Amino acid sequence: MYKVLIADDEKNIRLGIQAMIKREYPDFETFIASDGQEALDSILENKPDIVITDIKMPRMDGIQLIKELQQLEEIETSIVILSGYDDFTYAKEAIKHKVKDYLLKPVNRAELFNTLNTIIEELENSQKMTFQHLDDYRASQLNYILLNPNIQQEVVEDLYRKMKIESYPDGYYVGIVQLDGDIDGEDFLNKINELLHSSIDSIPFLDKDGRVTIITADFEQFSILKEQLGRDKHSIFTIGISEKEQDIREFKKTYGQAATAIKYHFLYPRRQIILYENIKEKPDVNSLPADLINKISNMLGTEREMEIKAILRQVMDFDVIAHSSINYLENLNMEINETIFKVFFKRLGEESLVTFELLNKIDNIYNFENFHEYFHALEDLLMRIHEYNKQVKAVYSEQKYMDRAIAYIRENYHKDLNLAVVANYISLNYSYFSHMFKEYIGQNFVDYLKMVRVESSKRLLKETDFKILEISEMVGYKNPKQFARVFRDVEGVSPKEYREMNG
């Protein structure tokens, strides 16, 4: 709804314009004035969005009224002037003062409405830009408050004044909305803004993790969101809500409460609202089942697969986890990573990470949608390591695998040979074979192949008259420059120098 003031010393004209506006824009609030001074007093009192003023008026004419308004910083209004044909000189003077438009008397209905519609569109666009700027500013400053651990209280108070966030005499809540799906954070924020458009006390913004966070004095707003978002049957969402707080300076604390509450979405993915007051009493459990986790680690690679799974279910007892603070599950995951996974992969080296990419994901439980998805991923990774260890032990116990591999390399070094070809020949997984080869031989496959080829070329250089180009091809190098470079790297001299040194 907009406010419009009509100022004209002719009663019929001001009342006629007022009537036209009321019929076309019934939501508008209109005021009238019979001269410039009366108009100025009304403007100061009512702060209209649009002023339609005649130029020639008693006490204060329209030009003087415009000048007075432009000196008042607290007044922002769009001005339209009225004039007769004889007043065109005055109209030109008014236009210098950046009026929006001027209308000739008698006022044409269509021209009046066209002018008002143009002004309304400008006002709405301006408001959108102003609101967007304020929203962006609030989001950046609220995140600054959250991320800055040493921010001073007086700085916080100053920021709230600049953000135009007043105190909440009846208290406020902080809520964090988590939506499962591919919707972008900005798009979801826009959707939340649409659902909360009627609440002037609600401040939605995106936190540092891209989650929609809401500060509101009205708890009912969360119920509205639950109802509106719940209409999409395919939408799975959770709202974590803090306790009620009176002091806006305690925003960081209330945000922390909401952030803790939303974590329980991991355990209760179907619960749409989680209140901090309902989970804050869950006890912290400092004693972890470290002995059971060690058992799992020691049993990996044995023939006790069913026992490993049974102990894992004991470690991940959902009933215990659900009745404990979420910190317990976070610490439990950390202990498993430290005791089993990190030790395992440190021993195996980087080449194994290709096979076990899941490790990077399982490092953080919140990389998964919920507890059950996390548990199955954890069990899957453990079983893959279990099978890996079984095969490693089999390779160590039966050296025939490596003996076959070495024999194959020495018989076929002159061919286009690589690790994958040899691994396939002896029917072992590429990563397993890479690790086992290095453990068994003491050097990686590429270096070992170079050594075999150089040894053969040295014999040919000493005992035959083959040209170096021919020897290069005979030991598996189609490019003689590559052969010379490899030979020099291994022996320290070129093939030619080696032949000359050895007669």
TrEMBL record:
<keyword id="KW-0805">Transcription regulation</keyword>
<dbReference type="Pfam" id="PF12833">
    <property type="entry name" value="HTH_18"/>
</dbReference>
<dbReference type="InterPro" id="IPR020449">
    <property type="entry name" value="Tscrpt_reg_AraC-type_HTH"/>
</dbReference>
<keyword id="KW-0238">DNA-binding</keyword>
<feature type="modified residue" description="4-aspartylphosphate">
    <location>
        <position position="54"/>
    </location>
</feature>
<dbReference type="InterPro" id="IPR018060">
    <property type="entry name" value="HTH_AraC"/>
</dbReference>
<dbReference type="GO" id="GO:0003700">
    <property type="term" value="F:DNA-binding transcription factor activity"/>
</dbReference>
<dbReference type="InterPro" id="IPR001789">
    <property type="entry name" value="Sig_transdc_resp-reg_receiver"/>
</dbReference>
<keyword id="KW-0963">Cytoplasm</keyword>
<dbReference type="GO" id="GO:0043565">
    <property type="term" value="F:sequence-specific DNA binding"/>
</dbReference>
<protein>
    <recommendedName>
        <fullName>DNA-binding response regulator, AraC family</fullName>
    </recommendedName>
</protein>
<keyword id="KW-0804">Transcription</keyword>
<dbReference type="InterPro" id="IPR009057">
    <property type="entry name" value="Homeodomain-like_sf"/>
</dbReference>
<keyword id="KW-0902">Two-component regulatory system</keyword>
<dbReference type="GO" id="GO:0005737">
    <property type="term" value="C:cytoplasm"/>
</dbReference>
<keyword id="KW-0597">Phosphoprotein</keyword>
<dbReference type="Pfam" id="PF00072">
    <property type="entry name" value="Response_reg"/>
</dbReference>
<dbReference type="InterPro" id="IPR018062">
    <property type="entry name" value="HTH_AraC-typ_CS"/>
</dbReference>
<feature type="domain" description="HTH araC/xylS-type">
    <location>
        <begin position="403"/>
        <end position="501"/>
    </location>
</feature>
<dbReference type="InterPro" id="IPR011006">
    <property type="entry name" value="CheY-like_superfamily"/>
</dbReference>
<feature type="domain" description="Response regulatory">
    <location>
        <begin position="3"/>
        <end position="120"/>
    </location>
</feature>
<dbReference type="GO" id="GO:0000160">
    <property type="term" value="P:phosphorelay signal transduction system"/>
</dbReference>
<dbReference type="InterPro" id="IPR051552">
    <property type="entry name" value="HptR"/>
</dbReference>
